[in-house]
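User: Can you predict the 3D structure of Radial spoke head protein 9 homolog? Sequence below.
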Amino acid sequence: SLNCLDWSLLTPATKEMVAQAEQLKGRFQGGPSFGSNFAEINPQAAEKLFEGGKEPVIKEEARLIATIEQIDRAVGIVPRGAFVKTPLGSVHENRHFEGLSLVEAKKLSSYFHFTEPVNLKNKTLLEKANLDPSTDFLDSLEHDIPEGSWSVQLEKGGAVVVLRSLLWLGLTFYHVPMTKQYGYIYFGTGEKNMDLPFML
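Assistant: Sure. Here are the predicted structure tokens for Radial spoke head protein 9 homolog:
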């Protein structure tokens, strides 16, 4: 929105936009047309863009789209069992999901990244044998690198479980045990915490 009254959806991010946004550092300026010049950050990348007939500049709007995509891919999470995979391979919301128990809700292994799995493909056959293919088809948070990049806290006397990302500061996920209520929201600067391995 440019006037905080009329809102429109962002266009989907392309791989090129995400790759360019990953190279940029610093906070957002707040103007969609503000451009960041690659020649100052990565001269080699700027030369390739010049050779391809493109400007070595990324607009703030494109950087925002790419950053949202990065955050969703890295820390967009769902509780185990909230979605199911059918034998034909399609994924659907689980209508029978009644929430995690409090004991399960306190474990990182009970939460999955809601994106295409990466680590799951690297598991051995023995590890895969203990998984339920209908619910365990996504990557678990317990294997995230660096280890300790999630903070698990209980709020309201254990009535709400809150997970906070230490990699993308400002990302907060909540789940009310024994209910279908869960979700996440991001209030941050759009900067990845690259110092996290040194802070743990």
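The chain has two domains: 15-74, 77-198. Residues 77-198 form one domain.
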